[in-house]
Amino acid sequence: MRIDLDHKKLNVAFFITLFATLFFPVLLPSAHLIYFAPFLVMTYYQRPFLSCLWLALFCGTVVDLLSSYQHFGLYALNYCMCSTHLYQQIKKF
Question: Hey, which of 14, 28, 54, 82 has its CA 20 to 30 A from 44?
Fold first, then answer.
């Protein structure tokens, strides 16, 4: 089941989530949200599995670069593992 989304809409969704990742923690420091989740779910419906993994790796690397956590790559690994699991569950959400 694939939903046809424009690449332009997907790019706009990426930049909205990137903006949210950069600026919402400043406005709401106590809210720990995963801002790239809606973008990744949109990619599950539009892109093949390998492309989704690359996008998840890229999103996780961005979050790794912006976080102050010492173990670099932990978010990227987490995003890839969750994407691997959730891509198989595409029909359920």
Answer: 28
11-26 in b/e burial notation, b at 16+ Cβ within 10 A? eebbeebbebbeeebe
Whether the Cβ atoms of residue 87 and residue 49 lie closer than 8 Å to each other: yes
Under a CB-based contact definition with an 8 Å cutoff, are residues 56 and 83 in contact? Answer: yes
Report phi then psi at 58, rounded to 5. -65, -45
Cβ density class 32-52: b for 16+ within 10 Å, e for less: eeebbeebbbbbbebbeeeeb
Unique residue bearing structure tokens 């949210």: 20
